[in-house]
Amino acid sequence: MKEIDERIIHNVKEWLSHAESDLEYAELGLNLKTEQSYRLVAFHAQQCAEKSLKAYLVYHKIDFPYTHNIATILALCKETADWTDKLQDAKKLTLYASTLRYPGERVKVTKKEAITAIEIADNVQKVVKKALVDEGLKLE
After folding, report:
1. CA-CA 20 to 30 A from 66: which of 30, 46, 49, 94?
2. What is the pLDDT of residues 64-111, one digit of tens each?
3. Rounded Cα gap, residues 68 and 45, in angstroms
């Protein structure tokens, strides 16, 4: 197990906490049962996956660009991770990062797509947390 300073551990846990909050918010959004809420569910699911992956990069002191592109972030994780191939479906979430937040976009998200986005994000979060714990990070 490598030594990681407390500042890095704090930052990793912050990223994971924000990811968890996004996932919780996405799950709550399903209860609203409106078409508008499904696009927000998908957005927060994407944010969960993105922040979880970025937490892994922070832990490994890997710089990452300002991006919401899951494929780019997964490619950076692959430098030190052997689990990225299990998360290829997460790339689909990139669509929800920004195109759904602004008026004028015509992308519609169905309830089924919103549920799938949550399932993907939940899997990303679980895989990343397991990897971090396996590498010595203590999570409460």
Report:
1. 30
2. 999 999 999 999 999 999 999 999 999 999 999 876 666 666 678 899
3. 12
Distance CA 111, CA 99 (A): 17
Measure the CA angle with vertex 24, ends 131 and 20; round to 5°.
30
Contact between residue 121 and residue 23 where contact means Cβ atoms under 8 Å apart:
yes
**115 close to 30: Cβ distance less than 8 angstroms:** yes
Q: What is the pLDDT of residue 2?
A: 52
SS3 per residue for 79-140: CCCCCHHHHHHHHHHHHHCCCCCCCCCCCCCCHHHHHHHHHHHHHHHHHHHHHHHHCCCCCC
Cβ pair 62, 80 in contact under 8 A:
yes
d(CA 64, CA 15): 14
Residue 88's identity, in one-letter code, is Q
CATH class of the domain defined by 6-133:
mainly alpha
Q: What are the boundaries of each domain within the chain?
A: 6-133
Under the phi-then-psi rule, with left for phi > 0, alpha for psi from -120 to 50, and beta for the rest, what region is 62? beta
